[in-house]
């Protein structure tokens, strides 16, 4: 399952939506479950169906230059109280941890975040910054790499 998160009205926060659109144009949604969520990360809980792999795509602020692509597995996601992974209230880690308490049977076995480092999250109506827009193809390629890596590991088992 691939879940893209973002707000198309808030500058670089639209990165998840831009990745979603690119994935749909490439037909990835025909083989995998691909979803677009707005600004509430908690909505993620409603989508989970015990898939083995969950790839989350979101704009992040982790202190790197805008357009940097981050690939973070579960063990590397920032913990609560640290830097927020997402500006959507609850971070990815918090949502998954809450889900494991409430709906453990529906939680994915593996979680990977493909984060696009953003700069502008507060200017209403602003487009993606140039650096973030230029990074969208790399983020799409990384999502496809993660899905492909998972398919290969399943065949080897």
Q: Please report the distance between the alpha carbons of the first and last residues.
A: 20 Å
Q: Tell me, what is the CATH class?
A: Alpha Beta
Mean pLDDT: 83
Shape, principal axes of CA atoms: globular
What share of the residues does DSSP label as strand, in percent? 15-25%
Number of domains: 1
How would you concisely characterize the structure shown here?
By secondary structure, the chain is α/β, with parallel strands linked by helices. The protein is 34% helix and 18% strand. The longest helix has 27 residues, at 130-156.
Task: Please characterize this protein's 3D structure.
This protein has 157 residues and is α/β, with parallel strands linked by helices. The chain has a single domain (2-156), classed as 3-Layer(aba) Sandwich (Rossmann fold), CATH 3.40.50.1450. Helix content is 34%, strand content 18%. The chain is built from 4 helices and 5 strands. The chain has a 5-stranded mixed β-sheet with strand order 2-1-3-5-4, with helices on one face. α1 (15-25) links the parallel β1 (2-5) and β2 (34-37). The longest helix has 27 residues, at 130-156. The two termini are 20 Å apart. 36% of the residues are buried. Mean pLDDT is 83; it is low at 84-88.
């Amino acid at each position: 399952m691939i879940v893209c998160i973002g707000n198309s009205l808030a500058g670089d926060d639209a990165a998840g939506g831009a990745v979603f659109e690119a994935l749909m144009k490439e037909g990835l949604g025909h083989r995998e479950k691909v979803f677009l969520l707005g600004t509430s990360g908690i909505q993620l809980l409603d989508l989970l169906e015990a898939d083995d792999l969950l790839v989350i795509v979101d704009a992040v602020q982790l202190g790197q230059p805008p357009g940097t692509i981050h690939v973070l597995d579960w063990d590397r996601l920032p913990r609560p109280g640290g830097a927020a992974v997402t500006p959507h209230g609850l971070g990815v880690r918090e949502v998954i941890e809450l889900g494991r308490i409430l709906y453990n049977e529906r939680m994915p076995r593996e979680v990977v975040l493909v984060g696009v480092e953003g700069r502008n999250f507060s200017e209403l109506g602003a487009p993606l910054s140039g650096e973030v827009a230029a990074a969208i193809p790399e983020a799409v390629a990384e999502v496809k790499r993660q899905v492909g890596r998972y398919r290969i590991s399943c065949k080897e088992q």
